[in-house]
Amino acid sequence: MAICGYNALMGSGLREFAEGLVLSIALKTNKQKTTLTSQLVSERDEIELMKRYLLDRFTRSEMEADTNVSISGFLGIVLIAEALLPFTQDINSEEEFRTSILRNTQELVDILQEFEALFEEDGKHVAIIDRIKHAYRGIFEKSV
């Protein structure tokens, strides 16, 4: 990532987290005797409520710095889970679910690698914000 750099262990960690999501949601689906699609709707709704609640707590100025760091880290994990979960698809099997999450994970890993490469492309003589903007535009504002 910009500023931190990218290391393959970051991608491995995201893949392992994704596998944990697959197993956890599959267990919940079996325990609650529901479909994966139905469970994903519940997960999406829970994540949305959790994001709003955490953002509200995080932005309160009376929070102590240590609490904000914890909330920030937890919010980051919630956002990663949201990015990896296939909320826009009907999922019919655990294998299809796993494949979809791993595809989303690889896309995120590719973005991290590409962002880092573009960020470093301009070198140290360019303001950091301009390097961030360059990398962002190179990934998210590509002409189609």
Count the domains.
1
Q: Report the helical percentage.
A: over 70%
Mean of the pLDDT scores?
A: 88
Biggest sheet record: none
Secondary-structure-based class equals mainly alpha
Q: What are the low-pLDDT stretches, counting only 5+ consecutive residues below 50?
A: none
What does the overall shape look like?
Answer: globular
Work out the radius of gyration.
18 Å
The share of residues in extended strands comes to under 5%
Q: What is the oligomeric state here?
A: single chain
Number of helices, where a helix is a run of at least 4 consecutive DSSP H or I residues: 5
Give an overview in words.
With 144 residues, this protein is mainly α. The chain has one domain (8-140). It is 76% helix and 0% strand. The chain is globular, with a radius of gyration of 18 Å. 12% of the residues are buried. The model has no long low-confidence stretch (mean pLDDT 88).
Attribute tags:
144 residues, mainly alpha
Write the layout of secondary structure elements.
Layout: H1 8-31, H2 36-59, H3 65-84, H4 94-121, H5 128-140
Helix pairs in contact: 1-2, 1-4, 2-3, 4-5
Could you write a compact summary of the structure shown?
Helices cover 76% and strands 0% of the residues.
